[in-house]
Amino acid sequence: MLMGDVEAAKVEPSRKNGWNLPPSRKQVVAWTVLIILGVLHFTSLVPALRTSWQPVAHIVPAVVLTFHLIVHLTAMSIDPSDDNVLQNKCPKLKIDRSKHEHVIENSHCNICQVDVAVTSKHCRACNKCVQNFDHHCEYMNTCIGGKNYRWFIATVVSAVVAIAWESGLAVMEFVTYFTDQASRRILQPYIDLGPMQHYKEADFKIFLQSVPHEVWLTMLAVYFVLGFLAIALFGQLLGYHIYFIYHNMSTYDYILAQRRKSQEVVASNKKCCHKKKNKVHPAPDSSPTNYGNSTSLSPPDIQTPTDPENNNNSSKLAPSLDQYTLHVINKCVTTNRLLPPLQGDKTAGLQTVVDIEM
């Protein structure tokens, strides 16, 4: 193999934004749910309202959804890479661990081959350094950093508003199906009935096609369940980011803070266990430095290597955390997948929140 072929073999592709193929599974699910709920709203829910209410029911969600599409697509389209990465456009090389302990050393990324900002982190999924890195969002299939963070927040807020409106309308129509059968003042299919017609003769539609009442009610129930789950997901996500903004921190900073806190808990528990064990089972030797088996009862050697992505080498993390610590971390952070381990850390966090190369 020629030298040029060897160098080419070391080059790894990187992602520019959320439009790069292949799409993530969560991105496909998000767009599918968004489209289905939107189409059902305009072709099934709104036509069931009385005619005088329908213009408002069309206009308000249409404006919110249009705004959501604009900010969503903008957040996806922005390349959040570090400015030096964009300017130099060097090929991304596979890191040689025999030469480099960390991906970023002294503010120089050994994969992107450029000097980067202190707040930049190298995303494993996108294979590039992201300026003011916050997290890798699988629902947008791109990293969220300083350049697209505000667009990301606008996307989450507009999604919560749109889904809350649509789900609320679904609940209202489900309830009024039973309460409006006699008065016939809210649902247009009831209003269209003659004085002598039974409510069972009302014409309810899905996708503008007449369906049995049971099918229409089932659609409303499924719509509400999907909407409730989406609101719970996006609402919780929005709550976390409001907390982060208030405390002037990123998702990545929060993950590190929780890991440090969990490390302290584990270290404290281990020391406590050693003290109790030494007290219950004293060694025959009365020497104050010898308590039983000195090899097995010696205090744990907890090292504090630096965070691989912190160019100032000021963040300290424990090299390994046990299953209890992993449980604490996962309770503190909302996500669906585990993070690749940080330097010396064989545990995982959540990949939808943070996904960095070490």
Describe the structure concisely for a colleague.
By secondary structure, the chain is mainly α.
Helix content: 40-55%
Rg is 28 Å
Oligomeric status of the shown chains?
single chain
Our estimate of the beta-strand percent is 5-15%
Shape: elongated
Distance between the termini: 29 Å
Order of helices and strands: HHHHEEEEEEEHHEEHHHH
Stretches with pLDDT under 50, minimum 5 residues: 1-6, 282-354
**Beta strands, count:** 9
Largest sheet: 3 strands, antiparallel
Average pLDDT for all residues? 80
Main sheet strand line-up:
1-2-3
Number of helices: 10
Which structural class best describes the helix and strand composition? mainly alpha
Family: Belongs to the DHHC palmitoyltransferase family.
Catalytic activity: L-cysteinyl-[protein] + hexadecanoyl-CoA = S-hexadecanoyl-L-cysteinyl-[protein] + CoA
Protein name: Palmitoyltransferase
Organism: Dreissena polymorpha (Zebra mussel)
